[in-house]
Amino acid sequence: MKKNLKTTFLVTALLCVATSQIRSQQNNTFDGILGRLYSYVSKEAPEKLYLHTDKEFYTKGETIWFKSYLVNGITHTRTYKSNVVYVELLDSLGRVVEERSLYADSLGVAGDIKIKENLPQGHYLLRSFTNYMLNNEDPVFFQKEILVRSPKIPLAQQVQYKTLPPDNLLEKSIADKPMVTFYPEGGNLVTGLLNTVGFKITDPRGNGIIVKGEIRNTENLKVADFHSSDFGLGTFGFTPEPHMGYYAVISVDGQEERVALPKPLLSGYILNVKNMGDYVLLKVSSNTEMGLEGTLLMGHLRGNLFFKHIGKPNEKEHYSIKLLTNGLDDGVAQFTLFTNRGEPVCERLVFIDHPNNDVTLSIASPKEVYAQREKVVLNLKLTDTGEEPLSGNLSMSVVTDYHHKVNDTLAPDIKSWLLLDSDLGATVENAAYFFKDNSLQRRDLLDALMITHGWRRFVWKEFLQRTGNKKVAFLPEKGIMITGKTTAFDNKYRTRPAMVTLGIFDQGIYQEKKHTDKQGNFSFGPFTFQDSINVVLDAIDPNAPKKSKEKDVAIHVDAPQLKVVPKGRQKTNSFQRTLTYVQEHMGVVDDGPFYTLVNDSTIIELDEVVVNENKKTRAEIVEEEINALTLHGKARNRMFIDSFPGNEQASVMDILRMFPSVSVEGRFPNQIVKVRGGLNSINLSTEPLYLLDGVQVPIDVIQGMNAFGVLFIDVLTGAEASFYGVRGANGVIAVYTDRGLRFSFEQKRYPGITNFTLQGFYKTREFHSPNYGRAKPKHKMPDYRTTLFWNPNIFMDAKSPTPISFYTGDRTGSFWVKIEGITKDGRPFKTDYRFEVE
Which residues contact 808 (CB under 8 A, 6 or more apart)? Predict the structure, then answer.
């Protein structure tokens, strides 16, 4: 008896120890998962950018006014990483036609892009990003489609795009065979358990279509009906049987199309989530041998952990949890189920949109109808659902009615971008559509969108395999840096540490001294100047054996960092729809004078002057002499070697890498050069035409050239390259050497000293709104501006209504006030207000 008791006690003790060890191991595993998430939030938080533009399409000569909102990607409050924002305007071939480098010292920064008169009409892409965003393998940059039109030539004659009728935006014809994709909720179909399946049905061009169908098993018995809704999205539920296959049946033009569903697993896990608005109902099931005991169900929103639950012994087969959403931020939440070994087995996205998070921006005006050139006064008040005032940062434009309608139906807004599209990798077509109302249909459609998408920033298996913090290749930029290296003057490959003195002699004198490191590297900055400055670097070697040798130092300044060309997101038909709408309103656009020079916000009024002679400036003379060197004249893509100090010892191939339209692959002498935007010759060759001082040469001549002695390089594409006929079909690379011009462009190289000009941040122009309360001679001119007012920097202090005033012009009809912004605690909002001008 005693022996049996001892044996029983020993077995019980061993089981307790084993259970304790398993629980300890589980705790360590789960602590590792939660620790990785905490590290992501505290150290690896991403950045997001959003651009609010004054309108959606423009006429040549107008200005794109924009406000760039730069925020922490988790909290949507101000980021304290980057201060430098890049904004680019790209043409339909992906070439950068305009770019801006802006310094953001707060939540955002304003900017502008003047649309040049010679810019071809068509479809453009406005893109914005920071250097820090380049650390992501597939970075999510803000992108927005922009249409540029000519003022007097009918739009249909200038842009050759196939347009879609406006009443056929969502329900497309299914004459073509549809593409059907199924997404089992949580990840897999499991037999014997109730499964929810999301699906998306599109035409071959990727447009969502509305279709009805049936789900049948391999015995041809119907087990469920289904039908897609807007964007081709939908869900259905059924319980798969063991050893049974399933397929969807769709009728297309009387023909029956069959699409197989994923093969169900005999055992596995099911994660079912129902979003009820005020709460989320979580249902977890499993038919595995281990069951749900010891598993971890975790929920986070943009990385912020808000829920965790470890399966209990009595929850082995299933359990349910009612999770209140009050207190959670709005946005995409991710629920993940981990096994007791820390393996992610189920994932489900849910969009949290609690009414308590809503923000109201009220706009009050003494009247709703104004006369021409009358002062408009608006009082803005920002409050929460309890009518408590809030602080916020916002931007406002006032545009004509047709510009607002295009924006209202097609363009992304700050709320849809920050809360939805940016977290799903900019893969949602017309994300703003999901925020138009709070109807049950809209909520169901948004939930179907969640089932059919994954979280782009959290691929758990890759996320958990990393050891330590993620290596950052692109540091957040705080300003402009001046970096480089010192070497022996007669041998650039022999490092020579030195004392480097930086001198800036614009608007006063600034000097700073620093020792290089052992490899000769130096760094100055960050600086936040605008325009351009003249910089002098002086270096001496204090450890030189002789006084006369301390200046035998060469200074090599790093060129501006090469830009990484990001992957563009998949094109949608939104531009075609925008174009259709613009064509419908051409009469409205062209009713009055299309442009008003005197009242254009880009015009600055100057004092009267008398011009006695038109004298060419030195810059004009220089440009004429340079253009005379080439056969093709002036080139859009021209680079002077002395624009990048320190590169005089680089090769010409190194300089070509700096052109955004040129890609250089491989190593010398097996380099392949491609010019983006080429016409592609009929012989399928991709090699561009190489010219040296106007004479055609083979690529090996260019490969062997050093940049020293080269004056400038032109890269020609499209119409410019057509000057050289068929030879220029793949683009033209024209290298011109310094052949004794009477002025020098080369950076002078002396021992221990170098000088150069450094470009600063773009200086944003001010939007000029006419004040018709004071009579001026220029007010006699007509005023038909389509953007009446633009203010990118409105700050609400939560104390009293903020008054905003401006004047109407000569255009009559409906005008819309478009406001977008972010509260101090990170809640994005958008508001529109309408008034009339008679």
Answer: 370, 371, 372, 373, 374, 376, 788, 815, 837
And the tokens for 288?
A: 């595995």
Give me the sign of the Cα torsion angle 566, 570, 574, 576: positive
Q: Residue 222: beta bridge partners?
A: 216
Taking 3-state DSSP, the helix, strand and coil percentages for the chain, each rounded to the nearest 5, stand at 20, 40, 45
Residue with tokens 């600063």: 760
Reference 761, options 99, 4, 10; nearest CA is 99
User: How far, rounded to the nearest angstrom, does the alpha carbon of residue 245 sit from its chain's CA centroid?
Assistant: 42
* Spans of the chain below 50 pLDDT: 10-11, 13-22, 153-175, 566-613, 618, 680-683, 740-747
For the four alpha carbons of 261, 266, 271 and 274, in that order, the dihedral sign comes to positive
pLDDT of 136: 82
- DSSP letters of 676-691? TT----TT---PPEEE
Digit-coded pLDDT (tens) for 102-140: 999 999 899 999 999 888 889 999 999 999 998 887 788
Exposed (0-12), middle (13-18) or buried (19+): which is 95, by Cβ within 10 Å?
middle
- Smallest Cα–Cα separation from 640: which of 624, 621, 659? 659
Interior CA angle at 13 toward 11 and 18, to 5°? 95
* pLDDT in the model for residue 20: 47
CA distances from 349 to 309, 417, 420, 449 (A): 17, 17, 11, 9
Burial 166-195 (b: 16+ CB within 10 A, else e): eeebbbbebeeebebebbbbbbbbbbbbeb
- Are the C-beta atoms of 474 and 131 separated by less than 8 Å? yes
Task: Measure CA 552 to chain center.
Answer: 46
Distance CA 200, CA 218 (A): 22
- How far apart are alpha carbons 276 and 283 in whole angstroms? 13
Instruction: Locate the DSSP E strands across 325-404.
Output: 331-338, 344-352, 360-364, 369-370, 375-383, 391-400
DSSP state of 641: G
Q: Which residues of 202-228 are buried (b: 16+ CB within 10 A; e: fewer)?
A: bbeeebbbbbebebbbeeeeebeebeb
Q: Using CA of residue 709, residue 715, residue 721, residue 723, what is the dihedral sign?
A: negative
CA geometry: angle at 553 spanning 550 and 555, to 5°? Answer: 145
Give the DSSP H/E element, type plus range, for residue 145. strand 142-149
Rounded to 10 degrees, the C-alpha dihedral 665/671/675/681 comes to -120
Q: In what order do the strands lie in the sheet with 195-202?
A: 179-184, 195-202, 233-238
Tell me if 69 sits within 8 A of 334, measured CB to CB: no
Which DSSP category does 132 fall into? G
Residue 355 CA to residue 446 CA, distance in Å, equals: 16
**Is residue 380 a contact partner of residue 392, using CB atoms and an 8 Å limit?**
no
For residue 492, what are the β-bridge partners?
Answer: none
Strand extents, DSSP E, 676-798: 689-692, 695-696, 710-716, 732-737, 753-759, 787-797
- 3-state secondary structure string across 416-469: HHHHHHCCCCCCCCCHHHHHCCCCHHHHHHHHHHHHCCCCCCCCHHHHHHCCCC
Q: Contact 332/419 with Cβ under 8 angstroms?
A: yes
Helices (H) and strands (E) in the chain, counts: 11, 45
Per DSSP, what are the bridge partners of residue 362? 381
Cα 415 from Cα 263, distance rounded (Å): 38
Q: How is residue 146 written in tokens?
A: 């922009």
The alpha carbon of 644 is separated from its chain's Cα centroid by a whole number of angstroms, namely: 28
Give the C-alpha distances (Å, rounded to integers) separating 161 from 95, 115, 143: 19, 21, 20
Classified as helix, coil or strand, 60 is coil
Three-class DSSP labels, 516-544: CCCCCEEEEEEECCECEEEEEEEEECCCC
User: What tokens were used for 429?
Assistant: 């077509």
